[in-house]
Amino acid sequence: MRCPEILTLQAVCVCVSVSVAMQQYPAAWSHYDVCKSRIYTEEGLTWDYMACQPEATVMTKYLTVSLDPPNITCGDPPETYCTLENPYMCNNECDASTDELAHPPELMFDFEGRNPTTFWQSSSWNTFPKPLEVNITLSWNKTIELTDDIILTFESGRPEQMLLEKSLDYGKTWTPYQFYATDCLDAFTMEPKTVNELTQRTLLDIICTEDYSRGYVWKYDKTVRFEIKDRFALFAGPRLHNMASLYGQLDTTRNLRDFFTVTDLRIRLLKPATGATMVDENNLSRYFYAISDIKVQGRCKCNLHSNSCVFDKDKGKLGCECEHNTTGPDCGRCKRHYHGRPWSVGSYLPIPRGTANICIHRSHGPVPHVCDNAMLLCQNGGTCHNHQRCHCAPGFKGVLCERTRCQVHGPCEEYPTAGQPSLHPPSPPGPSRSAPLPTAPPGGDMVLLRIVVFITTGQ
Ligand SMILES: [Ca+2]
């Protein structure tokens, strides 16, 4: 008989918030919110583990924003701007030294709902014809999974050319997410496409869209989107009613899961709205970028080993509160002493509880590997048997066949090195083969055993 019994206060809180969430979203969204519960079995009270993940939330509360060039924000020195629609209507003032007239980057992430809106604004295009390019980088210092569309709201005209990029390695390398242009062929030599043209097979294709950058001014078309939900819908159906199908795909297709995973986003503004084919060189204060709001929804990536992600104010970053005997910012490895089997990501399958794939205590798991043929741990021509012992070539001994047999009694002569098994193992192709192998230290087997444990446990 199965009798779940929630133990911790935190788990109770999660359940309460989930019951609220269930009213707002399709039921499939609310799975995977409990990591473990107590159950009574024939052996008595025990833990039952499930795959779990934090709830999706507004991620813009936890990011840091940086601009390149850093001094591109307007107001230093103060400037007056004209509207794109009417070059004689010039009442938009920007002055960084006055709170009411300053437009710093944080106004892209404040609470909207007030009237008038608050917005970040760049300097005007007074360097024309040199391009007016601005990079806006959003960094979480944590791996997150996007769960809803990214929406940028422009206060002025939307850019004529723009690129959205993502990073999965904290900003070291970048890949495009989507290109945006009034003319994709002209700007990026790409055929224009819309997200509706994507199929399950082409879901990961990077497209250029003309949907969000019209060549003339549409005063009420202010948003630019990166369509996450339309991509989800290719697997989950138009109303996302079949999330099981999506989760199943996410489980089995690593590229798909990675596609929606980021540590950073970069908005590359490449050409501002001009409202016409020709730029009015006599009135460059009509051309600038202004963004009032950026929406990013997502959840911490915890590898299905945590239902809670907490912002540490001292470190200034998010971190998963790991369950299932895992640890690390993304619960990406087993806790100390819990290497009874290798770490593994949790699984969404079978729906709806998934599989926790918990780390188990070393004493409950299989005996750690002593040797491994793939890593060539056995030396001097020795071969690994059942990962537990090296079968040494004649004339060698030791846990890893690292010692010559005659070493104990004195200098070795009966096994000359010429023509005999090499003191170094053969080197088949492959990058791991060139890694330095443990050699025989003077301390003997105990030292070597420690090296082997280090290799097998990663500690
Ligand atoms: Ca704002």
Automatic annotation (TrEMBL):
Secretion signal span: 1-21
Domain annotation EGF-like: ranges: 367-402
Region feature Disordered, mapped onto this chain: 417-442
Gene3D superfamilies: Galactose-binding domain-like, Laminin
Signal keyword on record: yes
Keywords of this entry: Disulfide bond, EGF-like domain, Glycoprotein, Laminin EGF-like domain, Repeat, Signal
Pfam families: EGF_LMN_ATRN (PF24973), Laminin_N (PF00055)
Span of domain Laminin N-terminal: 48-299
Gene Ontology annotations of biological process type: animal organ morphogenesis; axonogenesis; tissue development
SMART domains (alphabetical): EGF (SM00181), EGF_Lam (SM00180), LamNT (SM00136)
Annotated PANTHER family: NETRIN-G1, NETRIN/LAMININ-RELATED
Protein name in the entry: Netrin G1
Originating species: Oncorhynchus kisutch
